[in-house]
Amino acid sequence: MGQTVNTEEQTDNAPLPPRVRYAIFCTLWRLEDEGSFVSDVTIVGAGAAGLAVAAQLKSRGVDSVVLERGDGVGASWRGRYDRLRLHTTRRLSALPGLAIPREYGRWVRRNDLVSYLQDYAEKFELDVRTGASVQRIEAAPDGGWSLQLADGTTRSTGTLIVAIGYLHTPFIPAWPGRESWSERIIHSAQYRNAKPFQGQDVVVVGTGNSGAEIASDLAEGGAASVSLAVRTPPHIVPRAVAGWPAQMNGILLGGLPERIFDPIAAGLMKVQMPDLRPYGLARPSEGLKKRLRTRRYVPLQDVGIVTDIRQRRVQPVAAVQSFSADSVELEDGTRLQPDVLIAATGYATGLRELLADPTLINSDGIPVVHAGDPVRPGLYFVGYDVTLGGMLRQVGIEAKRVAKHIADSADHRETEASAG
């Protein structure tokens, strides 16, 4: 790939170089006719994972088409709340092949990350097709994969990488009585800033990073009261201590077994974070790495929630149990009457509805094989491995693995074509 051929200088007896022959094969493989599309390598999702895979493939001489349901790259990041910053450092969050600009600061803002992803796609001249919403994926009868799109077209591909991520479809629990409650329930995906909630009583459900940061944003932005509903006490870590980021602890210590890692993590939390039990927030009873393994849990990084709890701007309360027409009932019997409830209750992967073959995912909707290995010949899932070292760093690692595997397979096909 990347060679220029002057066809006028070719003779009937001079065969094209093998890589040029393979490039022509890939070009001819892409056809667009009467609602069908054929591509040798297709990536679903133009977030960080999809772009990283496409760039790594291109660096190895393999072109791909990236299908994105949104109107631009990094669509999932564009819609996040305004104050969002990465909880991982700029240097350790860059995708392979392009550093994040130093002027974005150590903790990159949401809008700056979107700009970086746009620059990334442009640098590698990636073929991103926006507004292409894939509705169904199934194995093609003659090999490869068939994709049904929302516009009625069908796309076929020899190799498919699914990179829509695990933060795909907002999830709100089916609490008893939820439909009867007269006030608003929104998912954290719909939250932008505190302005619409000034002067209101708000309940935030969930103590992940989004829930805690939204609670702080509301408290600091003029909400009349903020209650944080807690089912499982979080593991809280400072974002950095004396300049040393929590992410680096995850990278350096993440390989330790649970029996060693979890006591270390618990000890660090006691030393680094104040005891919040007097303010209504218990300490976690389960080890951090065990929760990572069993629940795909990452710790809550403190970017203000500890101070807000200690200063009573955010009040931890028991988990939500049910709703009535005029109140929210908690598991300890307390009844609250907020103006709005914000559910920071996570996301579904969306893969259950997307994949025709249910054996490709487990009961939680996570691919049974991911992190860079193919789950079936020609089918990969990237961006579903949760680690303590950071999501963006991890997708870069996976992108390199997938690209190498696909490129090696392409080289094998090229060798066979040359021998033929």
Structure in words:
The chain has 420 residues and is an alpha/beta fold. It has two domains: 13-168 and 349-419, FAD/NAD(P)-binding domain (3-Layer(bba) Sandwich); 171-346, 3-Layer(bba) Sandwich (FAD/NAD(P)-binding domain). 30% of the residues lie in helices and 22% in strands. The protein is built from twelve helices and 23 strands. Strands 1, 2, 3, 4, 5, 6, 7, 22 and 23 form a nine-stranded mixed beta sheet that branches. Strand 22 (374-376) and strand 23 form a beta hairpin. Helix 2 runs parallel beside helix 12 (391-419). The chain is globular and about 60 Å long. Mean pLDDT is 89; it is low at 1-13, 18-38 and 415-419.
List the helices and strands and how they pair.
Layout (H helix, E strand, L loop, with lengths): L17 H12 L1 E3 L2 E9 L3 H12 L5 E4 L6 H4 L11 H4 L16 H14 L3 E4 L3 E6 L5 E5 L4 E9 L6 E2 L13 E4 L13 E5 L3 H12 L4 E6 L5 E3 L1 E2 L2 E2 H8 L4 H15 L15 H8 L4 E3 L2 H6 L4 E4 L1 E4 L4 E3 L4 E2 L3 E4 L3 E2 L2 H4 L19 E3 L2 E3 L9 H29 L1
Helix pairs in contact: 1-12, 2-12
